[in-house]
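Chapter review: from sequence to fold.
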Amino acid sequence: MPAQAPLELTAIAQLPAPATSTTTPAVGVSRRHWLWSAASLPLVGGIHALTLSRPSWAQSEPAQPTAAQLGTWRVVSRVGYGPTPDLLAEVQQASSPRAWALQQIELAHSASQKPPLIAPDLADFNAPLPDIFAADKRERELRKQIKADATQTAGGPGRSPNPNAVPERRMDFSEALAPEFYTRRLTLQTAAWRLTSCSQPELEPPLLARMTEFWFNHFNVFIGKGAVRPFVGHYLVNAIRAHAMGKFEDLLLASARHPAMLLYLDQAQSVATGSPGAQGRTRGLNENYARELMELHTLGVHGGYSQTDVRELARVLTGWTIGPNQLDGFRFAPRLHDSASKRVLWQAFPGADSTAGEQEGVDAIRLLARQPATAQRISLRLAQFFVADQPAPALVKRLSQSFLRSQGDIRVVLRVLFSDDEFWAAENRLFKTPMDFACSALVATQAASGADRRGLVLAADYLNNAGQPLHGWQTPDGYAFDAATWLAPEALTRRSDFAFALTRQQSPAEFLSAFLSPATRSSIAHEAPALQAGLMLSSPEFMYK
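The token string follows.
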């Protein structure tokens, strides 16, 4: 582990600026365009600077953020989703931002071993799995009956229930559950908890929320696939969050055995070739999960496996399916397992009787989790998530070595990462994804704590419009989180719209002003007071973490 070095951070990098104009911008989009410029115009939005009183945080001459302030910004924005007054006080009390980051690892691990704090009216999504299976079945039967009744009485095609008739669409769960909207309610409850957990550090440790995001993205499931939908929230909490700070292979197994993943990648349908099916038909292998397990979850596309390995792994995993009556939602069906000999990579699986077939799958998954190629892939993705879009190969190597030495202990890898000078190097910039921006805006404004959940609704709508809807990526590779994907003029406009909607009738978060450049602070101070809070969240500095 490298020795701690003094922070050498310089000013937070600015977004690319358009040419400066001396023309007074019009209200609306032009104001947002102006914000990405040098931000030094004396006239803004048609209001002369001298007609406005300067806010208290702008009374003194603006100064560049200090190295200590920049270190604090980096750590609270990367280890978490941004500063609050309480978090800033915590960092100040620690011996250094680096020390605070390391403290968060143990806090996150401890919290992950306990149930999350979920508001009572959101708790349906985390009900016991047998209850979720039963309620999902009731919903499907009820919807069929509604269509049948409509056809019989009207003599026309059946109709589906009207989703606009339910109050849950605005994250209001105060009324009794409508059984025909069960999965819709779970979807919105999951989104509400997810946004709450990332934006209220007093309820969920910031690093645990970060790692839950990272691992859910790595083990992505798509909430739009009908069979998967009811189980996504339970998967998020009990497979991802609960193992986010432990051993990678335990997390991998928890994901593999959860109904959400079993259904998403069709593992529940994969059986030994020739297995009996309905009406005298036979069934066979489905290689979807085995392929993604190797290509995305562990070894990577260049990890040294072949198509033969994929097929052999699929054979090993036959009989792994859902168990609607089991507390963990998993069932091994011995009669559907391929009991002949198999070989994955170099490891022979000589065949197993009905009592040992499940263990073959466990052994194969642990084998993949412990490979150097897996260590390399996970280390690269962690470095990209926490450090830079193109992290230094030497950093990735150090992380990979710690992964292998610790047998995939995520806490050990994070200690190396947060202690490494690369994490703190000023040139290693990270542009916020829409998820980053939504959560950090909620953190800065404390808008997630409102009883009406208006802030959560605005954030969810923004994410839908920005191309990163919660749990909404269709393919198993998960969302990208590099600047090339998310930094575009129309994306900045959407962020500005969200920022102004979120801060309507709010005063600026004064604690943010210390992290803004002198030009940005001066320009915001010359704007109308009603716009200053939104302009802070729309500032170039706030776009980076």
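Two observations follow directly from the output. Strands lie at 43-44, 47-48, 275-276, 282-283, 320-322, 330-332, 342-344, 347-349. The two ends are 24 Å apart (CA to CA).
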